[in-house]
Amino acid sequence: MKVSHDSILLGLNAGYSSRDPRIVKHVSCENVQIVRRACVRPCNLFSFIGLQGIIVGMKVINSRGEILLQRVTWCASFGTKLRGLMFRRSLADDEGLVLAESRSSIAATSIHMFFVPFDIAAIWLDDKYCVVHTVLAKAWHPYYASPVAARYVLEGPPALLQRVAVGEQLRFEE
Question: How many CB atoms lie within 10 A of CB 81?
């Protein structure tokens, strides 16, 4: 089933717990396959702000067909974007996050590194998953932003910066 990205964001902010897998919906949006788990009853504050997230075993592939990351978490709800990589001890070499916004923006896709005790690669992507900016985000740094409006931020291990170039188009596959 094809739906717009905006309707996915609206549906994911419903505030249901991901612990009860009675309801599972598969929604296809462009090249991204998203799995949503929900239960019938709203749960605690973390569920209310959408902290349960959208955890998918997606892969990030560059324009040459090389797999850049094997395990990517798609974060579209307020809670999952708020949590991001904070309070984690490390990030595996094949792991990453995609912070997805409902529209392209410089301010909405800015990131901070408070409570992230390790460096990461931050890669800003436009609506078509084309790389518009990259930076090595240092631990505990207060602010990073793309000089160009972006819709997605891919966060991964620092070595990822050597394998991605501005202007390159990435794709996400299950």
Answer: 21
